[in-house]
Amino acid sequence: MNSARKLSRQQFSQAERTVYVIECNDAGYYYVGMTTSLKRRLEQHKTGKGSSVFVKEHGGMKQLLQTHIVGGKIPARRLEHATTLRMILLFGQDHVGGSNLFPKSNSGSRTLT
Question: What are the residue ranges spanned by the domains of the chain?
C-alpha cells in the first residue's frame, strides 16, 4: 500500500524547494536549478535521464556546489533567478544554464526576457 498522499495545488506551491548550483564536467560551465527532490534531480543530472540539455551539452554533472532550502515556489524561483544572475556576472551568460530568465531563441542565442 502506498502511504504517500497527493498534495493539493496550494500545498505543492508552498512546499519546500531546494535551489542548487552544479558544476558541469566541461570546465567553467554551471547550472542553476530548483527542485522539490534534490536527490532525484541530482541522479537525473548524473545519469542524463531527465537532465537538462545544458548539462548534457557540457559533459554532464561534475559536482554539486551550493544548495539553499527555501519555503515555497515563488521565493525559490526568485532565489533561482538571483543566483543565475549572480553566476552570469561571474562567469558570463553562455557559461550558465538553468533559470528561464534567458531562454534560447531559434538562432541558439540567449536573450533577457
Answer: 13-97
